[in-house]
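Two proteins were folded this term; both appear here.
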Amino acid sequence: MTHYAEWADYTGSAAIILAIVLLVIAGALAFLALRLRKPIELRRPGASLSVFLVMCFLLSAVLFLVAAGIYGATAYQQGERFTGPTNVIFPYTATLGIVTFVVIVFLNMRSGFRVAVVSAIVGAIAGPMIFELPFDIIVMGRTYPPSPGADFTLLYFLPLFLIELSSFALLTVSPVMRVSRWTLLFLAGMFLIFAIWALAGFAYPVTPLPLVLNVVSKTLAFATSLSLFVPPGTWRAALASGASGAWNTNNGLT
């Protein structure tokens, strides 16, 4: 069977229900952000646990590659084909990953080069995974797996979920990682864009609207990851600087 896109659109009540669920999540995150008084610092794992987390991430990646290979080979044997366009999202994802890496290194050089680089690595890895976890949950039931569908859906997505969860666990390796109000606000923004995308059927990003919504939500996912590594006081200083600049400009105009 030939398909144009990698997953089927949401339609009718399914699209509305999905949008409502995503809006509730976005609202809950925004509420928690407004209630958060100070950044949340997570306990850093020891050396042995850190190595274990890295190994879990790498093993998950290997499992996914094996599962994806079996999935693809079986789909080909059963005649599953896709005629849609090539992946136009990857260049955006790669660019956002590079920018996130560089900015995290720059912001954390005072903590030492090693800490800055390790933080940048785990932050750049987590960026797309923040997007992918809810995205995969949304589309996994609407893909076109080979037969038996339920078994191959689990074969493909379970290792992918392990990659995503282990990448989040890796964030704790960085001693400068903390969850701030901005982290929750950026995450709420991502779910808000997801909700708008759901109202548009959560369609494959080939036409302008789904493509823009995909890029914007992914940008907010990387911003969420980046916000975890902004040193304390940076947001306040930036806002104060911006307010001071606006005040001086207004005075100059008058």
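Next, the second protein.
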Amino acid sequence: MLDWVISMDPNRIQLDVVYPWLRESYWSTGIRRDIVERAFANSMVAGAYRGEVQIGVARVVTDRATFAWLCDVFVDPSIRGQGIARAMVSALLAHPELATLRRWCLGTRDAHEVYRPLGFGAVDPAIWMQYLPSPANWRA
């Protein structure tokens, strides 16, 4: 029996918990709090909770019609390996508002095995490109 639940309620997200996680993550090191607040206000989110304590988060940037970028998936390091990240991502993938999406993307350095069983695979480098602005634009 699980002792945690997944919620899609954006009002349950505890930015006082989430912000330090993201600020210390390899993908958002040093990010400013105001940017995290704006990002979450403009995204679809899933949170994992043990009682009232937030233990995980996942965010989707989407037009809710054709495309989504899965990002900021984070589980408290002390309780990883229990399927919490996969459960949050599964809840987002199953959300009825996202049923018409043609493409979901994400980036990960070390969690490929979290996403691969859900159907994610490598992208074609002949098609995909990226632009990386200076971190000075978003770091504290």
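DSSP finds four helices and five strands in the chain. The radius of gyration is 15 Å. These notes refer to the second protein only.
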